[in-house]
Design a protein that fits this description.
The complex is a heterodimer of chains A (about 300) and B (about 350). Chain A has about 300 residues and is an all-alpha fold. Chain A contains twelve helices and no strands. Chain A has one domain: MetI-like fold (Orthogonal Bundle). In chain A, helix 1 crosses helix 12, helix 2 packs across helix 12 and helix 6 crosses helix 7. Chain B has about 350 residues and is α/β, with parallel strands linked by helices. Chain B has one domain: P-loop containing nucleotide triphosphate hydrolases (Rossmann fold, 3-Layer(aba) Sandwich). In chain B, about 30% of the residues lie in helices and about 20% in strands. In chain B, the strands form two sheets. Chain B has an eight-stranded mixed beta sheet, with helices on both faces. In chain B, strands 2-1-4-5 form a four-stranded antiparallel beta sheet, covered by helices on one side. Classes of the chains: A mainly alpha (about 300), B alpha/beta (about 350).
Chain lengths: ~300, ~350
């Protein structure tokens, strides 16, 4: 019973899983671009008051619909407000929507999916039928319906999108749990007398985290688009709060004479959504379970 | 690895000195539904375990041998209470284990542990070794914060792993080392019964001997009651005091390992033993080659389950399961041949 030698490739330093994953993300070009866009957006949102050249609410009724100029890089809108400043402040809205709704729906979906998958039987049956009913509606339609009941406001947007979003996480996590729970480490945990709560939260859910993380990053993009859509329809963020969707909506009537009112918020949405999509794709590749872990010496 | 079947081997316990059984299975049945129907019970069942009796005694290792699908693993899971029997009883110290709840159930799980077949799937990939063992000790309140570190190192040393390995993730270990970790996890609760479900079949042959040696050392040191499930007869001969031969959910022969290997009686056992390669060139051996497939476990044949493949079947083997026949104490066979006074076919011509 002598101590067997460990593989020589391993060094005594602790192996950090997330550092390894991030390293893989940054090594792919799209991952690097995506991460940069998202990081930049976060910085812009945090430091909006410092970065924005003008007050986003300040109206200049004598200078309406002005095209881009050295003083106003992206021009001025129908009330003479600086579009660049409004886009910078709008980043806060979009990111808040993305992080809050995706966070709430991922956590809620993991809970529902984890419980349904592990317990099975009638619990699974009931929870999954509810999920199926919600999945049968297009997300935006459901969100519009909920907004119609709750009334238009920014906080209600968060509630509506969270209620719409959790179902796909529940489906995903349930599938992963069904797959994982047959594995022997779960059997071993049961044989050790661990409680169901402990097995679900400390053993099963951490092992379903990778696909959830990928889905959450990609889901961030679709939540941002949905929020913009709701604001465009007048159901989301209310004027004068600067939100990208709302800016599109306000600029719509001047589409021909002043296209910069809609072009720049549209571009902002596109770039941020693209950034999250790139990051999500790179994360999916980096977390691929079929790729073997290896350590560089 | 092939055991030398002809040499005499020192056994560590004889039936006489065996104490009272710690775990007892009495006429245990277990079937699994093949497809779930919306209403009512399933129409198709897999009959995994069909009336198995078994006893585990401290300090003794019982081998359970059978081909895949014969229900060996289900027996192990029934003992660990990972499955509950459909009928019959699983007793621990004379108490029905299905009745255990709450603290009593946790205490039972502390007494009975399992080592799994596939060490690559048996460790949570997201947990470092120390947090895995720490969790076990914490749930069962086996060590306070101050002794925790000491106990971890002690557990790892017991299975022959260096103390530094406690900061590693499972994927940083080889198969044999992982199996050592699984053994350490099982030993963390200081069990009295250890079920080993094919613990070496997923490992390299060169590693198998090390793990078997480790299991045997631990079994003797802690006087564990061990159930050793395997399909590898030479491994079973090396490890076990008593051997049970299982076929399609039924025990067809049981006896002291020495007896089973020197004088196998059941045609199935004889066929199994004839398949062990012997490292002796020039030795003439007649192999009993079985024909036909193992029958589907979805139907329960009324007679001997081995009927369809038995080279010596008798007409009534198909309709009635044979009664037990004990030519000697500590050796029982369930086969009509010995009731009828037939001679079993010869297996070995030396």
């Amino acid at each position: 019973m002598s101590a067997t030698a460990l593989p020589t490739t391993s060094n005594p330093a602790r192996f950090s899983y997330w550092r390894y994953v991030l390293g893989r993300v940054f090594r792919s070009p799209t991952g690097l671009i995506g991460a940069c866009i998202v990081a930049l957006a976060v910085l812009v949102a945090v430091f909006a008051p410092q970065i924005a050249p003008y007050d986003p609410y300040q109206q200049h009724l004598s200078e309406t619909l002005r095209p881009p100029s050295p003083q106003h890089w992206l021009g001025q809108d129908d009330l003479g407000r600086d579009i660049l400043s409004r886009i910078i402040y709008g980043t806060r809205i979009s990111l808040k929507v993305g992080f809050v709704t995706v966070g709430v729906s991922a956590v809620f979906g993991m809970l529902i999916g984890g419980v349904a998958g592990y317990l099975g039987g009638w619990v699974d049956e009931i929870l999954m039928r509810i999920t199926d009913i919600l999945l049968a509606f297009p997300g935006i339609l459901l969100a519009i319906g909920i907004m119609a009941i709750l009334g238009p406001s920014f906080n209600n947007v968060l509630i509506a999108l969270s209620l719409v979003g959790w179902k796909s996480y529940a489906r995903l996590v349930r599938g992963e749990v069904l797959k994982e729970k047959e594995r022997e480490y779960v059997q071993a945990a049961r044989a050790l007398g661990f409680s169901r709560v402990r097995i679900i939260f400390f053993h099963l859910l951490p092992n379903t985290f990778n696909p959830v993380l990928v889905m959450a990053t990609l889901g961030m993009a679709s939540m941002i688009i949905t929020e913009a859509g709701l604001s465009f329809l007048g159901l989301g963020t209310q004027p004068p709060t600067p939100s990208w969707g709302g800016m599109l909506s306000e600029g719509r009537q001047y589409l021909l004479e002043a296209p910069h009112l809609t072009t720049f918020p549209g571009l902002a949405i596109m770039i941020l959504v693209l950034g999250f999509s790139f990051l999500g794709d790179a994360l999916r590749d980096a977390l691929d379970p079929h790729i073997k872990y290896y350590r560089e010496v | 690895m092939s055991a030398q079947l002809s040499g005499t081997k020192k056994r560590h316990s004889t039936p006489g000195e065996a104490g009272a059984p710690l775990v007892q299975l009495r006429a245990v049945y277990k079937a699994f539904p093949l497809q779930q129907r919306l209403l009512g019970p399933s129409r198709h069942w897999v009959y995994a375990v069909n009336g198995v009796d078994l006893q585990l005694t401290p300090g003794r290792t019982v081998g359970l041998v059978g081909e895949s699908g014969s229900g060996k693993s289900t027996v192990g899971k029934l003992i660990c209470r990972l499955e509950l029997p459909d009928s019959g009883q699983v007793l621990y110290d004379g108490q029905d284990v299905t009745r255990f709840r709450g603290a009593a159930l946790r205490a039972y799980h502390r007494q009975v542990q399992m080592v799994f077949q596939n060490p690559y799937a048996a460790l949570n990939p997201r947990k470092r070794v120390d947090s895995m063992l720490r969790e076990v000790l914490k749930v069962h309140r086996l060590a306070g914060c101050s002794q925790m570190e000491e106990r971890l190192v002690q557990l790892l040393e017991q299975v022959g792993l260096p103390a530094e390995s406690r900061h590693r993730f499972p994927f940083e270990f080889s198969g044999g080392q992982r199996q050592r970790l699984c053994i350490a996890r099982a030993l963390a609760v200081e069990p009295r019964v250890l079920v080993c479900d094919e613990p070496v079949s997923a490992l390299d042959v060169s590693i198998q001997a090390q793990i078997l040696h480790l299991l045997k050392t631990i079994q003797q040191k802690n006087q564990l009651a061990m159930l050793f499930i395997s399909h590898d007869l030479s491994v079973v001969y090396h490890m076990c005091d008593e051997v049970l031969i299982m076929y399609l959910g039924k025990i067809v022969e049981r006896g002291e390992a020495e007896r089973i290997f020197s004088q196998p009686l059941h045609p199935y056992t004889r066929a199994l033993l004839s398949a062990i390669p012997v490292a002796e060139p020039g030795r003439k051996r007649e192999r009993i080659v079985l024909h036909g497939e193992i029958p589907s476990a979805t139907r329960r044949p009324p007679g001997c389950p081995f009927y369809s493949r038995c080279p010596q079947r008798l007409p009534h083997c198909q309709t009635e399961f044979p009664p037990a026949h004990s030519p000697q104490t500590g050796h029982t066979v369930w086969c009509w041949l010995y009731r009828e006074g037939h001679q079993p076919i010869r297996m070995d011509q030396s």
